[in-house]
Design a protein that fits this description.
Layout: E1 11-17, E2 26-30, E3 35-39, E4 48-54, E5 58-61, E6 64-66, H1 70-73, E7 79-90, E8 105-109, E9 119-125, E10 128-129, E11 134-137, E12 143-145, E13 151-154, E14 160-171, E15 180-191
Parallel strand pairs: 7-15
Antiparallel strand pairs: 1-4, 2-3, 4-7, 5-6, 5-7, 8-9, 9-10, 9-13, 11-12, 11-14, 14-15
């Protein structure tokens, strides 16, 4: 319920799409630990906004988590990862909101959410269905797993803003800088 400041240089890509899935030109304004996105053409309705955030390397040390690679830390670590975060915000629903938009790790809603109904989603990695991804709704103490087709049925959506989070860890072959890739993707929408 509160905004968290972040290193804006970690935001690697922001895209905006119209209801028909076409790119919408945007202006990006960096502030103190935040980025604002403003449509450049007020005549085009912004329907979907996506972003990619590369959080760099992280190591778990006896002193806690540090934003360093294993090489930079230089001593043995308890755990290490390279977190990559993807997000999609749906501002208005249309046929294009039920299709992938090209994020490397993405949650695709398969229907429009409605009060009192479950929502089926599909989790994709590099455009392909991902089995065994963990999916949850922020603020709800319940997790779901995707099936072999990357699908999960989400319950307990609430009125107002909902944030669905998918996560998945992939061991890295080259463990020089980190042991695993830690993927997370969010799908945010308002349920009225």
């Amino acid at each position: 319920n509160e905004l968290e400041k972040y290193d804006t240089k970690k935001v690697k890509e922001i895209k905006a799409l119209s209801k028909n899935g076409e790119a919408v030109a945007i202006k990006i304004v960096e502030g103190d630990g935040e980025i604002k996105v403003i449509p450049s053409d007020a005549s085009k309705e912004l329907a979907i906004l996506t972003a990619f955030f590369d959080n760099g390397y992280w190591v778990k040390t006896p002193e806690g988590w540090k934003n360093l690679s294993k090489v930079e830390y230089g001593k043995p670590v308890e755990d290490s990862s390279h977190p990559l975060k993807y997000t999609k915000l749906i501002l208005s629903w249309s046929e294009s909101t039920f299709k992938p938009v090209g994020l490397e790790f993405e949650i695709v809603p398969l229907s429009q959410p409605s009060k009192g109904k479950d929502l089926e989603v599909q989790v994709l990695y590099k455009g392909k269905p991902l089995a065994e991804a963990t999916v949850e709704v922020m603020g709800v103490d319940k997790t779901f797993k995707t099936d072999q087709s990357g699908k999960a049925i989400i319950s307990e959506l609430k009125e107002g803003y909902n944030v669905i989070v998918a996560s998945y860890k992939i061991p890295l072959e080259d463990k020089t800088y980190a042991d695993k890739l830690s993927l997370s993707s969010t799908l945010t929408f308002e349920l009225k």
